[in-house]
């Protein structure tokens, strides 16, 4: 009889524990138990898509579970970010979030359908991608100093024009920051995408553009574009002879670097976020992934959630001020 009562009490205790457990708070060893999606707000073939696929392939190998990249294009990535923000917070739907969606769009759009701080749990920064200031090879602008001379107001100086893939893009903000920092007169010519913007720069219809190094370098190497400077704190190992903008025009601290982070819906269990951070950080540090990223002109990062949160906060303050001061409006 005593054994029966003891067994009954054990069953009741176990049942009570199961009833009180949070089913979303899976133990780290239980995750993942099914395919994981990384949602990208831009079309296949660009830097965000390429970086997401590099990480997805490595995680698939590590976990033995498919990690799928889903391209959900629209509204400068806002559609994809909103979808992930509203997804179930179980670690199976993640966002590849660029700096624009994290730190620029909240200031750019009056009714953004997500909040990058309140609606997301940061996992890690995957990589940064350097931006380079370029002109057509046939341009009379041979150096950054030539650009300053032609861009600053004066007799017979019409000012300069610069292209961007869209209003509020990092290319737009970088050029606006450069103009304000140097006193140049520069007119923005927005396009819908990188390809048409670069096409008109190559033809000489627009003077210059800030482009991601991964996109611009083949055109620089083939002699179609001329690089004036890198919008980074340090020179790139890919083009070590190219000075930074800070060096070329005497602007200490000038920097406009693209970066991409992995984010989860806000209520994702801490244990799942920790496992994702560990797995992605280790993947990024592996030699083959670092090599694949560097081929895309990217520098692997793999920082902690707290460090990523600090980066978002700092860049939000910086870029939102420029958006307000310059009165930038979306296309």
TrEMBL record:
Q: Which Gene3D superfamilies match?
A: Bordetella uptake gene, domain 1 (3.40.190.150), Periplasmic binding protein-like II (3.40.190.10)
Domain of life, per lineage: Bacteria
For this UniProt record, the keywords arranged alphabetically read as follows: Receptor, Signal
* InterPro entries named in the record: BUG, Bug_dom1
Q: Where do the TM regions start and end? A: none
What does UniProt give as the signal peptide span?
1-21
Note one Pfam family from the annotation. Answer: TctC
Identify its protein family.
Belongs to the UPF0065 (bug) family.
Q: What is this protein called?
A: Tripartite-type tricarboxylate transporter receptor subunit TctC
Taxonomic source organism: Bosea psychrotolerans
